[in-house]
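Researcher: Good morning. I'm working through a list of sequences from a screen, and I'd like to move beyond sequence-only analysis. For each chain I'm collecting a predicted structure so we can compare shapes side by side. This is the next one on the list. No need for commentary yet; just the structure.
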Amino acid sequence: MPTSAGLQQEAKGWVTLRTSARSSWLDHVARRWTAQVVGQPQATEAILRLLQRIEVQACQPQRTMGSMLLLGPPGCGKTHSVEALADVLLGSPGALLKINCAEFQQQHEIARLIGAPPGYIGHADTEPVFTRENLERCRTPEFPYTLVLFDEIEKAHHSLYSLLLGILDRAEMNDGRNRHVDFSSCLFFFTSNIGSKDSLSAAGSSGFVPPAGQEEAKARHFRAVSLRALKRHFPPEFLRRIEDTVVYQPLRPAHLRNILELELAKVSRIFARHSSTPFQVDFSSRAKSLLLQHGCDMEYGAANLHHTLACELQDPLYRLMATGQVTAGDSLGVFAKGSDLVFRKC
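Model: Good morning. Structure tokens for this chain:
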């Protein structure tokens, strides 16, 4: 083996390694996970890099397994990405510790996370969210780590950021009953819509962004505007403790079309496996186009598409079941007639 001084002169005997290669486990996770997440390749790659540390158990003393801030407009897949990851790694989209930050807009509500301190009414009766039991509840022998999601972190009272400083810095805290809580086996995800309106308007065709054909330049500008809004809202000491910030791009019509196919396949499985009235549902191409037309909204992304499917597709199917027009074993077809969906069975 050559010495460090002679590395540049000695070429023989060295083999170039591929740092972009994936293990079989990570490749398996990537295939299953990216099949559920549409239109965000940079975000998925960043989260997969975070998972790579876990595979080799690259844990550091008094540090969490990782933290990531997911930034972008509503309906672009931030929360869905983490829930889909929980589905792949832990067997269920709900197998994570999810904190809805809209419920913590007042300072006193933060006590629900760590428990009321001694002397406060309900101190002994209030079980905090952050306990060892809650953190371990969703772990499995195959994946002994906890996914912790703070959804819409910008809506929480600013005292939450102070609480998270110690957790992200030392991976530990003491709750209201002075019990030690260890976060060293946790992955933290934070989602935020902060600056999304400014980012969407700045990336529009009326702005100073290059024409629509130069999508890469528009994406860079969208990211820059989003990050500026992020720095204006969150304290710098909090942002410094987050290891990576990923900016999700607005979904385009082609992405929504792929999401529609995934959601329609999910709807078909739900009704085919119904406990009392299982039946088959198929969709014509015109019916799919109509749903996409009604559900396509560049500001609200997939959230508006999900609302459209619930109102125009699932609710009528439930009504047909409740009125006995559809029975077990039927085959149902969904067609388009004008601006409405038509349901027929054979």
